[in-house]
Amino acid sequence: MEVIATLEEHALKEYKWEDEELWISNYVARARIKTDYKVNSLLHHEVSPFQEISIVDTKGFGRMLVLDGVPQVSSKEGFIYNEMISHIPIITHPDPKVVGMIGGGDCGPAREAMKYSGIEKISVVEIDQQVTDVCRTWLTPSSHYDSDKRFSMIHKDGVDWIQENKGNYDVLMIDRSDPVGPAAKLFNQGFYKDVFECLTDEGVAVFQSGSPFYNTSTLRKTYHSLCELFPIVRTYLVTIPLFPCGLWSFTIASKKFDPLDADLSRLKAEDTKYINSEIVYASFVLPNYVKEILESN
Amino acid sequence: MEVIATLEEHALKEYKWEDEELWISNYVARARIKTDYKVNSLLHHEVSPFQEISIVDTKGFGRMLVLDGVPQVSSKEGFIYNEMISHIPIITHPDPKVVGMIGGGDCGPAREAMKYSGIEKISVVEIDQQVTDVCRTWLTPSSHYDSDKRFSMIHKDGVDWIQENKGNYDVLMIDRSDPVGPAAKLFNQGFYKDVFECLTDEGVAVFQSGSPFYNTSTLRKTYHSLCELFPIVRTYLVTIPLFPCGLWSFTIASKKFDPLDADLSRLKAEDTKYINSEIVYASFVLPNYVKEILESN
């Protein structure tokens, strides 16, 4: 087993040895469930000013980016999150030129956005440059996107960046992690107002809005906060095997265009592994218990 | 904490103590992932001729039925499985009178079937009477269904039962657990042929067909085996938070009626918590990576 020296040094609480095997554990305090992944090798570990960053290789998920002990994206199923946060808002807007993304230092959603030739500018705002560097080394070769002149990476606090870019963006993707640590302020009402003002008058934004199963308050608050600002707000669902309990939500907020009226012929799904034109509408169909979360106060 | 004496006696491998807390662990060897649930109390434990049966109370899922260490159904989200295995085959057939179910000793799907007044007979075939008894005591009060004269519970091996009931059934639900232990023979080609012969000429069957994420072979084999026998075979998806990685599949096999042509006005969804008329069609929309599983050999 390949294990770097820093493991014992840092005594990371999310790692544990069992019968001479290394496991990484993701604990959801709210539901008191833990998901443990057998680690074939801990490929990399470092501590940035913002968080602990590691890359592990696992049997079930391949390579995994782990931030502060929480798995964020894996090589085996990262396409699900990346495709579903990007294509839907992009096709909701009939002709987006300027696209921005807060978070998502692995640039997965940005690579999906690049498939749309009409897009002229793609900005990724990632607070933690070390996350970007680690992802480029271990997860996604940079050649895919460094050669695309439309793409720029900005290492800055997303809250500061969005206040400096009023009225410029056609599509914004808020690829925030859980509402703890550096991402916490991306869940405030003030931030939602900043997003509204960063968009053009026809702009569309999408937000990672949490698990509808074990964390109903994140979804409910996101939905209701956006309804106060945007005329069109819709939640859609996706199953992400890496995330606890699987079921996850995104919430789209739009000033003019309804995602249910999106022109599906615009969808660039030639080489996607998850999304297709039928999935777009189907993702907005909610089970009754999820509808109840949105309808309750 | 309320913990029955048999715990230490049996030294169940799926239970473990950590910092004076009891946890139950569900291990998926195929993907080398474990999901651990904090147990508030181990309410019941017994060993039947077929399996270990326990009922635990957990924070995240409420009461849970656990067979041989594998969580089967929970009070918090059991409605998802129960509604999705039952309503879809029932409305696929335009006028089902005789409905059978193999497995599912908790009778959840049978309770959904009872909502359809046209159904005249509902037989549940559960090999393990002790599972039924434990569920009646701890999970689902029997008053709901004992008063329904259409309902009968048969404690018998499903394979024997199905061979004795040729040509009788309009709808069959194969609520089998994983292809290990007593349920293994419910995954053989011979069993699929028995199901075909147990159905009327217009019959519809549905099968639990495994995780499309970490166990692609169960889904692929189920789908291809059924395609050899039935003219109409379709897989649909559901997210079950209790099951590892969340994403799960059911596969419907039909002699005459296509579930995509089902009369949605027949759906009895007045008090369902998951299913509604839009969900029926949306559940059959598959992400590309799941389509690829079905299309590959």
TrEMBL record, chains A, B:
One Pfam family cited in the UniProt record for this chain: Spermine_synth
Gene source species: Metabacillus litoralis
The encoding gene: speE
UniProt-annotated catalytic positions: 175 (proton acceptor)
Protein name per Swiss-Prot or TrEMBL: Polyamine aminopropyltransferase
Gene Ontology MF terms: spermidine synthase activity
PABS domain boundaries: 21-255
Binding site for S-methyl-5'-thioadenosine: 51, 126, 157-158, 182
Coiled-coil zones: none
Source superkingdom: Bacteria
